[in-house]
Design brief:
The structure holds two protein chains of two kinds. Chain A is α/β, with parallel strands linked by helices. Chain A has a single domain, classed as P-loop containing nucleotide triphosphate hydrolases (Rossmann fold, 3-Layer(aba) Sandwich), CATH 3.40.50. Chain A has nine helices and 14 strands. In chain A, the strands form four sheets. Chain A has a six-stranded mixed beta sheet, sandwiched between helices. Chain A has a four-stranded antiparallel beta sheet with strand order 2-1-4-5. Chain A has a two-stranded antiparallel sheet with strand order 7-8. In chain A, helix 5 packs parallel to helix 6. The longest helix of chain A is centred in the middle third of the chain and has 15 residues. The mean pLDDT of chain A is about 90. By secondary structure, chain B is an alpha/beta fold. In chain B, the strands form two sheets. In chain B, strands 3, 4, 6, 7, 9, 10, 12, 14, 15, 17, 19 and 21 form a twelve-stranded mixed beta sheet that branches. The longest helix of chain B is centred in the C-terminal third of the chain and has 17 residues. The chains are: A alpha/beta, B alpha/beta. The interface between A and B is medium-sized, with 29 and 23 residues.
């Protein structure tokens, strides 16, 4: 469903290349984990796929269900079924969770040919989803992420994912900032939401998330490229050895390849 | 009348001094005071610190005429501005003059007097307080009002009286062939333990040029409460220079919310003066401007005694080549201890050509006080816009939602339902029209 072909991207206007030729194919029903050290470009990759205007794709292509999405705005990508769970979810004071979700749900529903829900129907619908991430219903009437703890924000992202039912979910360090109980809740939620028709990309530093969510494929990203791919056992190997032994795959004589 | 020391004549000076008055003119003493001020004070210009950012040249150059020579149109279709809550507590003024046929009074319960000033000119409270609360130094605009007003709104609550419904003071400005001047006046006296809500609305029916100089005097006596909403929806070619001043006595509360939407140039100078301990007051503002509008707020919160809580949240959204000015003075006098004062001016700039000048000004002479203040000027955060877009909203919708959310905070404490709803609609209308940055033509 998602194909990245020799994807190069830089920060708009700054000329600093962050993605230096990423190739990746995700088939529906799969869970992929992308791991790598800080600054390797993992989060950038997720943002570029979601259409963040700060980044410019300079080469290569992103195909979603066989079609290039490079010219699509972030909202159009969301309509097509792409969802990004933010590493740092944004606070939007003055807009309640319910308002945002109903607006989002109905916009996406309309563009994907699903039925829109009126406020009462929507209320019933989201209450079911709350249980999935064990969220207190009072969160619904609070402003989006305003005053939420780090863990609550991450939970809220997965709650949004549950409500919006995307076909491709990019989860950017959803595990960071979660204590062990919250990690279990969030992981269970993701596992329950994942089905044979959708794809999940987990971006993470740590192997521990992968104890709860078992990936089909693990990729290691260093210096803007995927330098190694393997099965779930690769994550354990990384946990044991760190990333240093892979650095050489990204460089030749100390220079980036 | 002679005016030998007058330094610089202007059309406004001429008009104010030579207006036709009837023989039975009330308040000639107040007019005399205005005359004295005009005789010895110049029309302000940008060389004066207080007017540094606000250019009055166009006001000064306008050939205003007396209202009776301006060819004013009648007020039509104004019923839509009547608040449902105030169907028996409404005063209507058209171009500054009381219109009995549109007004409706008498439904407010015991001890509440609402009417036009001229009718109650003999009242003790009118004699005691009218023009005695105004305190704007050598302000020529207050002087113009002193010379030109014949009537105004009068609200008086006896001890312990509670107004059963919000009182609407509706100021309507009609279309005209020539620019004219209106001098609305308000006097509000809330005696001990009384309670009332005032909705003061200024509405321009057309896009003509006029000048309105509302002067409003409010006295909140011991343990009395006033909730005061001021909405300015003047013509986009109008000048609006308002002077609302309030005195708060022991254990009283005054909460005001000023919403600035209209006028080519507005200058709002709210002042709250503490007269005893244990008071609580609010001076919040919301400004939504566009095109070439200029909106200036120069406020004073004067803490003269211990134990006061004050709050000023002033939020501004600027689009087009509009210009916002904010100068918020907070005084805490010597020995005024245990003051908890909050001031914040937040500005949202939607366009490249918009301009914001902001100057929080704290003068604190006591040592045991808590005064927080801040001013920010910013654009919509691109991360926030992206976040909402990634949830399926178009860029335009995301900006609209964020602007709306920014503005909404200042009006959520307005407690009259229909007014709250009306303001939400106004905010929505503005954000809808301004979700795309505008380039001036």
């Amino acid at each position: 469903m998602l194909e990245l072909k020799d994807l190069h991207a830089e920060v708009e206007g700054e000329g600093i290349e962050i993605l230096k030729g990423v190739n990746l194919t995700i088939t529906k029903g799969e869970i992929h984990a992308i791991m790598g050290p800080n600054g390797s470009g993992k989060s950038t990759l997720a943002k570029v796929v979601a259409g963040h205007p700060q980044y410019e794709v300079t080469k290569g292509d992103i195909l979603f269900n066989g079609e290039s999405i490079l010219e699509m705005d972030p909202d159009e990508r969301a309509h097509a079924g792409i969802f990004l769970a933010f590493q740092y979810p944004v606070e939007v004071p003055g807009v309640t969770n319910t308002t945002l979700l109903r607006e989002s749900y109905n916009t996406i529903a309309a563009s994907r040919g699903r039925e829109e829900l009126d406020p009462l129907e929507f209320d019933d619908y989201i209450r079911e989803k709350l249980d999935l991430v064990e969220m207190n219903p009072e969160f619904l009437e609070r402003s989006v992420n305003a005053g939420f703890s780090g863990g609550e924000k991450k939970r809220n992202e997965i709650f949004q994912m549950a409500v919006l039912q995307p076909s491709l979910s990019l989860l950017d360090e959803t595990d960071s900032g979660l204590d062990i109980d919250a990690l279990r809740v969030v992981s269970d939620g993701i596992n329950k939401l994942h089905g044979e028709d959708d794809g999940v990309v987990l971006i993470t530093h740590y192997q521990r998330l992968l104890n709860y969510i078992i990936p089909d494929h693990v990729h290691v990203m260093i210096a803007g490229r995927i330098v190694k791919s393997g099965g779930k056992e690769l994550a354990l190997e990384l946990e044991e050895k760190g990333y240093d032994w892979l650095e050489s795959l990204a460089t030749v004589n100390g220079e980036a390849k | 009348m002679a005016h030998p020391t007058r330094i610089e004549p202007s059309v406004l000076h001429e008009l104010a001094m030579n207006r036709p008055v009837s023989k039975d003119r009330l308040w000639t003493g107040i007019a005399e005071e205005g005359m004295l001020t005009l005789n010895s004070n110049e029309f302000p210009d940008r060389k004066i610190e207080e007017w540094k950012f606000t250019n009055l040249k166009e006001l000064k150059r306008t050939d205003f005429v007396h209202l009776d020579k301006a060819g004013v149109s009648p007020a039509t279709d104004i019923e839509k501005y009547f608040l449902p809550e105030s169907d028996r507590s409404r005063l209507v003024f058209v171009n500054g003059y009381f219109e009995e046929k549109y007004s409706s009074i008498g439904g407010l319960g015991k001890g509440v007097t609402v009417g036009n000033l001229a009718k109650y000119a003999g009242d003790e409270a009118v004699k005691e307080y009218l023009n005695r609360l105004v305190n704007y130094d050598n302000d020529v605009f207050t002087a113009y009002n002193n010379l030109m007003f014949d009537d105004g709104a009068y609200i008086h609550l006896e001890k312990g009286a509670k107004a059963e419904a919000p009182i609407q003071i509706l100021n309507i400005y009609t279309d005209s062939e020539q620019p004219y001047i209106a001098s609305p006046r308000m006097l509000v006296i809330a005696e001990e333990d009384s309670d009332l809500t005032i909705i003061e609305d200024h509405i321009g029916l057309s896009d003509n040029r006029y000048l309105t100089i509302p002067v409003c005097e409010v006295k909140v006596k011991q343990r009395a409460h006033i909730h005061h909403v001021r909405i300015q929806r003047d013509s986009l070619d109008a000048f609006h220079l308002s002077r609302p001043i309030t005195y708060v006595e022991k254990n009283s509360e005054y909460h005001s919310y000023t919403i600035t939407l209209g006028a080519k140039l507005s200058r709002n100078e709210p002042r709250v003066i503490q007269e005893d301990e244990e008071v609580d007051f609010t001076l919040d503002g919301l400004v939504l401007i566009d095109g070439d509008q200029v909106a200036d707020t120069h406020s004073v919160m004067d803490h003269r005694f211990s134990h006061a809580t004050s709050h000023q949240l002033h939020k501004v959204v600027v689009n087009g080549s509009a210009h916002s000015i904010f100068n918020g003075k907070i005084f805490v006098r010597k020995d005024a201890q245990k003051i908890d004062s909050f001031q914040e001016n937040r500005n949202l700039l939607l366009s490249i050509d918009g301009l914001v000048n902001t100057k929080p000004q704290l003068e604190i002479f006591a040592d045991d006080v808590l005064c927080s203040h801040g001013a920010t000027i910013g654009q919509l955060d691109p991360e926030e816009v992206f976040y909402l877009q990634s949830r399926g909203m178009t860029e335009e919708k995301a900006k609209e939602v964020l602007t709306y959310a920014f503005a909404l905070e200042t009006i959520e404490n307005v407690k009259v339902d229909s007014v709250h709803k009306l303001l939400i609609e106004e905010v929505y209308r503005y954000t809808k029209a301004n979700s795309k940055p505008k380039v001036p033509a």
